[in-house]
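Reopening this one. Same input as before:
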Amino acid sequence: MTVHTANAVIDARQRQRFELEVTGTQAFIDYRRAGNVLTLTYAYVPPDLRGRGVGAALVAGALELVRQRAEKIIPQCAYVAAYIARHPHDQELLADRADVR
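Same output, byte for byte:
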């Protein structure tokens, strides 16, 4: 079963992470914020949700929130970096040197 819940991703700013709840279990991406640039440091999908598209839905939803807010990202997390490499339209969200202050 594949999960398509990117629109359910929330930004839990007080915890500095994007969250996606699926069947009562939470997947998340931790980040650090510097102005309008988010460094995505770590993605976690619980073992019982892996292989169902939850990680991809989580990243897609997080990137959509970033896009809506005209922010940029630095994908420090290997999973997020690999996702962006597979989705060229999301590469516009990558911060360049001018974005990082």
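So the earlier flakiness isn't reproducible anymore. For the record, The first helix runs from residue 54 to 68.
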